[in-house]
Amino acid sequence: MATAVQEIRPPTLSPTSEPPPIFDGTTRLYMSYSCPFAQRVWITRNHKGLQDKIRLVPIDLQNKPAWYKEKVHPENKVPSLEHDGKVLAESIDLIKYLDATFDGPSLMPDDPAKKEYGEELIKYVDTFTKDLFGSFRGDPITQTSASFDYVENALGKFDDGPFFLGEFSLVDITYIPFVERFRNVFSEIYKHDITAGRPKLAAWLEELNNNNAYKQTKPDPQEFVDFVKKRFLGQ
User: Fold this and answer.
1) In what order do the strands lie in the sheet with 27-31?
2) What is the model's pLDDT at position 148?
3) DSSP-assigned letters across all residues of 79-134
4) Can you tell me the distance from the alpha carbon of 173 to that of 118, in angstroms, rounded to the nearest whole number?
5) pLDDT for 77 beyond 90
6) Which of 106, 110, 201, 209 is the most exposed place for a label (fewest CB within 10 A)?
7) Average of pLDDT values for 42-55?
């Protein structure tokens, strides 16, 4: 499967970098290697074997090139997708778009019950991430306990595989960038293991870390730890 292809990561573009030939018919994913939202789309691309069809264009988020806002995405955020002469945005919309529009293994099941539950979980993810980030205003371990319990319970809904809907799906892609980052933060800063007492969460993370589509998108874990220390903890 194309997900096993080992890519060389393109260099990150800054204001002094030459812009790509925009709207030349090439499909491009504008992203950042450190952005969890962009990571969702990157994983989806990889899983569907679209490495040769969708080019990565990494943007320096701390020093964005002016042409990106002027010519690609007026909101100046990543991810965005240049495809068929238009630019699309919002990570959840993009992963659904890739799954529906491009060839490759489907990332949503045909089973109506699983599909309905998958949509419910995807809708909940904004609440989940807000609770995680909001926890730094108080006691993060206590305040996120219910959020990680929610994931543990959701992983037990179906018993035909280690993923949310049994098989790997858009739901796993939606959650993993944030769960993995916060696992690293809690381990590094608070010496707390979010998988303790949550065997399904532990198995899910182990399975995903053996998934080539995901493994190739993993950032340096220290980057997010340093971001949290600076942004939320004043360190």
Assistant:
1) 54-58, 27-31, 80-83, 86-89
2) 98
3) -EEEETTEEEE-HHHHHHHHHHHS-SS-SS-S-HHHHHHHHHHHHHHHHHHHHHHH
4) 11
5) yes
6) 110
7) 98
Is the model's pLDDT at 25 over the cut of 90?
yes
HSE-up (13 A, CA, CB side) for residue 47? 24
**Two structure tokens written together for 61:** 């988020």
Nearest to 37 by CA among 93, 84, 75: 93
pTM for this one? 0.96
Query: DSSP of 188-220, one letter per residue?
Result: HHH---TTTT-HHHHHHHHHHTT-HHHHTTPPP
Distance CA 41, CA 35 (A): 10
Structure tokens at 117: 């539950």
Q: Is the peptide bond before 79 cis (omega within 30 degrees of 0)?
A: yes
How many CA atoms lie within 13 Å of 217's alpha carbon, on the beta-carbon side? 30
What is the number of residues in the chain? 235
Residue with tokens 């990106």: 68
